[in-house]
Amino acid sequence: MDYFKLRPGYLVTPLLLIANCLVFIALVLVSQSFSQFHSLTLLKFGANYSGLVEQGQIWRLLSSVFLHLSVTHLLFNSVSLVILGRFIEPLLGTTAFIGVYIAAGIAGSMASYLFNPGVLSAGASGAIFGLFGVFIAILLGKMIRPDVRNAWAKNIATILILNLGMGFILPVDNAAHIGGLLTGIVLGLLLVPLMKKRLLRHLL
Fold it and tell me: What's the confidence (pLDDT) of residue 6?
């Protein structure tokens, strides 16, 4: 349970993890099921749906980021959040980290709204892919030794190709993934100077 423990440099990640788990538990209790969630229940919990967003319920672009459609969905995003958060949050700092996470999450929801109209969607995937984008920015920013950077770049490329590839086979929201990823890359590149400064301060 160390992943849920708050500590310096690791404050936002566990809070996001706890929030995602609590929302899922509430959804399970209301639905009395771990996987069979009625669309009306998901909408009440804040799922993203273009028809309602167009009616002014813009808050769904954010609320849907904290809602997951299955245990597997929650587990995958939680593991990714912990792995990326433990590395990226100390570099970005609390404020910038939550800012990037939320911005990428909303961007992913917006991409889903634009490119998948009429589809009910939810999940932190856009925000998670935003963190992948920040990781790519870190690699491009030459903050890591070349040998380590090249190895990590291959691993990240493999993960992204597999995940995006599955989006063409399985009913996965690739629009949200790509929207979050691009947002994370752009914000990450803008924040490279901040991350370098924080890293240098830590080393000194």
Answer: 87
**From 50, 64, 80, 125, active-site residue:** 125
Annotation marks residue 121 as catalytic: no
pLDDT for 171: 59
Residue tagged active-site, from 64, 112, 121, 177: 177
pTM of this structure: 0.91
CA 34-80-44 angle, to 5 degrees, is 40
Query: What are the distances in angstroms from CA 19 to CA 26, 83, 194, 202?
Result: 11, 17, 27, 29
Compute the half-sphere exposure of residue 18: CA atoms within 13 Å on the CB side of its CA.
Answer: 11
In sequence order, what are the residues at sequence separation of 6 or more whose Cβ sits closer than 8 angstroms to the Cβ of residue 79?
A: none
Q: What is the pLDDT of residues 63-92, one digit of tens each?
A: 999 999 989 889 989 999 998 999 999 999
User: Does 68 qualify as catalytic in the annotation?
Assistant: no
- C-alpha to C-alpha distances, 91 to 17, 64, 68, 100, 201, nearest whole angstrom: 19, 27, 28, 12, 10
Residue with tokens 């609590």: 22
